[in-house]
Write a structure and sequence with these properties.
alpha+beta; 2 domains; 8 helices; five-stranded antiparallel sheet; eight-stranded mixed sheet; FAD/NAD(P)-binding domain
């Protein structure tokens, strides 16, 4: 029995590309991406932050893969000269006695994440212009050029023998004697191939891809959560990222201040759950007042006139508004006699940080017999 490819990866975002790189040494790999550019959706519409791994539920995949992924990502960036900076982050509290801040400190310390506690004086010295009674400083948090990172992942995958195709969309899949028969649509029309396994790394379209593959596995509901970003043209005191306390249930990490590699400040994202699963990146004008209010709580010198809409992103969440955060989910499914699918579901933040570790996890799971 022969197949055209051992593995076909659907989705050319950071996760799909990392998987292609990790798997191409062991398998014949095809990656298909419907857009003309890598990471056109979630992977290119985020804060570009390398997270330390502090926030996530104990024992979760998010926690484990973020911590492991951070180490791998810094090493990978250094090895390949990918622009990045270990810039550090302040998590600020409006009160000196904040049990939630204490909990974060204890959790991070137990995980071996370097953290430093600051009082009001310490905050003023570390970040003049920031108003907070207490804070944690995380020196392991950083920023990255996610676009250059994805380009390097693509180069590595191709050098290892993977075939990467853009402008290519999955139309349908069904069991066959060789595994799974796929129909793909390209600019030149549809064509068919066979594959032994599909890795569903389609992010926002993961559930749609599952349907096209005739998946019968019960999947958790998918919620589209839009986050807006504002650029800032005024003078700021920031040398580090500045985060408020995370939102209840980890719906988001609060409207925070990030720096890009050129030193430009941007604020966001907020959280807006969409009623329909449409990729609408519109920034409602009403969001500006919400941003001003949130930012001035820790940056009172904000000039509202210097705050301008920048871009929006949509996160593929497995938890809805008001629900506790859900972990990444990797679900393996048999299709017919010889095929299988590995669904990667709810890969939101810290997906960028976790990408190399998540690809390792995929490789391990695919190597195990079921």
């Amino acid at each position: 029995m022969t197949v055209d490819f051992d593995l076909t990866i659907i989705g050319g975002g950071v996760i799909g590309l990392a998987c292609a790189r990790a798997l191409a040494d062991q398998y014949s790999v095809l990656l298909v991406e419907r857009h003309p550019l890598w990471g056109s959706e979630t992977s290119s519409r985020n804060s570009e932050v390398i997270h330390a791994g502090l926030y996530y539920p104990s024992g979760s995949l998010k926690e484990r893969l973020c911590i492991r992924g951070r180490e791998l990502l810094y090493d990978y960036c250094t090895q390949h000269d990918i622009p990045h900076r270990r810039i550090g982050k302040l998590i600020v509290s409006p009160s000196a006695d904040n049990p939630a801040l204490d909990t974060l400190y204890k959790k991070g310390t137990a995980l071996g994440i370097p953290l430093r506690r600051l009082d009001e004086t310490g905050v003023a010295q570390q970040a003049p212009g920031i108003r907070a009674q207490a804070a944690l400083f995380s020196p392991e948090t950083g920023i990255i050029d996610s676009h250059e990172y994805m380009q390097q992942l693509a180069r590595d995958a191709e050098q290892s023998g993977a075939l990467l195709m853009r402008h290519t969309e999955l139309s349908a899949g069904s069991p066959c004697d060789q595994g799974i028969a796929l129909t793909l649509n390209t600019c030149d029309g549809p064509f068919e191939l066979t594959t032994r396994c599909v890795v569903n790394a389609a992010g926002l379209s993961s559930h749609d891809v599952a349907k096209r593959l005739n998946s019968t596995l019960p999947l958790p509901p998918l919620h589209y959560c839009r986050g807006h970003y504002y650029s800032y043209q005024g003078k700021t005191p920031f040398q580090h990222l500045v985060y408020p306390m995370p939102e209840p249930g980890l719906a988001g990490l609060g409207i925070h201040a990030t720096l890009d590699l050129g030193g430009q400040v941007r604020f966001g994202p907020d959280t807006e759950f969409l009623n329909q699963q449409t990729q609408d990146y519109h920034i409602p004008p009403s969001s500006k007042a919400r941003f001003i209010d949130a930012i001035q709580r820790y940056f009172p010198a904000l000039d509202p006139n210097a705050l301008q809409p920048a871009y929006a992103g949509i996160r593929p969440k497995l938890s809805g508004a008001g629900d506790p955060t859900q972990d990444f989910q990797l679900k393996r499914e048999k299709i017919g006699a010889h095929g299988e699918i590995l669904h990667l579901l709810g890969i939101e933040s810290p997906g960028l940080t976790s990408s190399l570790a998540l690809a390792e996890e995929v490789a391990v799971r695919l190597s195990k017999k079921t």
